[in-house]
Amino acid sequence: MSTETAVKQGAASRLRTARWSGVKVWPYLFALPFIAFYFTFHFYPLVYSFWLSLHDWNGIGAKTFVGLRNYVTLLTKDPLFYKSLYNTFVMMLMSVPLMILLGMVLAYLIFHLTKGRLLFQTINFLPYITTPVAIGFIFSFMFDWQTGIVNAILMKLSLVTEGYYWLQDPWMSKAIIALMIIWRNLGYFMAIYLAGMTAIPQDIYEAAKVDGSTGLHTFTRITLPMLRNITVFLIVTSIIGGLQLFDEPKLLYGGWSASTSGGPDNAALTVIWKFINDSFITGTRFGYGSAIAYTLFVIIVLFSILSYRLSAGKGEKS
C-alpha cells in the first residue's frame, strides 16, 4: 500500500471520527446545561419533598421517619385543610366560568371592531401585567369600610346608611377575591380567544353570511365550535392555577395581624396559604407542609384529567 493511499485512508478515518463525534457528542453537550439545571432545581426538589413528607422535621434537628403519618393526620385530623380546600373550590367556581364567558364575549366584540381595536386590547390586557401587590392594595382600599370608594358610592346613592364591613364578611371576602381574579385575568382570556378567532378562516364567515346567518347564529354555530380546543386549554389551566390560588387572598388580607391569617373565620384561607402557614409561619413543620403540597398535586392531576374529559371527551368521540 502506497504512502498516498495510507494518508487518504487516515484522513478518511479522522473525518469519520470527527463526524461521529460531532453527531453524537455535541447535542448532548449543548443540552447538558438545561438537563443539569432541571435535575438540580426541579427534579431533585420534587423527589426530596416527597421523601421529606414521610418525615417529621423542623428544619434544624434530625429527621424522624414517620411513614404516611403526615398524610393520615392531614386527611383525618386537620379540618382546616378541608376548609381551605373548600374555600379554594368556591373561589375558583366563582371566577373561572365568568372569565371563560366574559373573555369569549369580549374577544368577539373587539374582533369585530373597525376602529380602536388595538386600544381596547391594550386597556383590557393592562390588569394582567399589573403586579399582584398593587392589585391587593387597590381592592383593599376600594372595599375598606371607612374610606373605601364602594361604601362611599353606596352611601351617596342612599343605598346604605353606614359603611359595610366587606372584608369581614366570609362570603363577601370570597366574592371580592373572585372579583380580583376576574379583573386581573380577563385580559389574558380575551387575548387567547382573540388569537383563536383570528386563526379561523374568514371564508367560513363569508359563506355563512351569504347563507343568511345572523350574528348570534354565526357565533354559536361557527365561532364556539372552532374555539373548543382553546376553551379546553383555558379550563384546564384555570383549574390548575385556581387550585394554587395564593396571591389574591394573601395580599388582600396582608395588612392584618398574624392572628387573622386566612381572613374572617378563615374564609379566605386557600390550600397554598395553609401550606405556607404550616411550613414557615405558624410552625416549621416541613414534613407536614410537603404532605400538603403532594396532596394538592394529586388533587390537581385528578381534577385536570376530569375537566379535560368532561370538556373535550365528547368532542373527540364524535
TrEMBL record:
Give a single Pfam family match. Answer: BPD_transp_1
Localization terms from the record: Cell membrane
| UniProt superkingdom | Bacteria
Its family? Belongs to the binding-protein-dependent transport system permease family.
Q: Where are the transmembrane segments?
A: 25-44, 89-111, 123-143, 175-195, 226-246, 286-308
Picking any one GO biological process from the record gives:
transmembrane transport
Return the PANTHER family for the record.
Answer: ABC TRANSPORTER PERMEASE PROTEIN (PTHR30193), INNER MEMBRANE ABC TRANSPORTER PERMEASE PROTEIN YCJO (PTHR30193:SF37)
In the UniProt record, does the keyword Membrane occur? Answer: yes
Keywords assigned by UniProt?
Cell membrane, Membrane, Sugar transport, Transmembrane, Transmembrane helix, Transport
Protein's name according to its UniProt entry: ABC-type sugar transport system permease subunit
What InterPro entries does the annotation carry? ABC_transporter_permease, MetI-like, MetI-like_sf
**Gene Ontology cellular component list:** plasma membrane
- Its topology with respect to the membrane? Multi-pass membrane protein
Q: Any idea where the ABC transmembrane type-1 domain is?
A: 85-307
Lineage runs:
Bacteria, Bacillati, Bacillota, Bacilli, Bacillales
| Keyword check for Protein biosynthesis | no
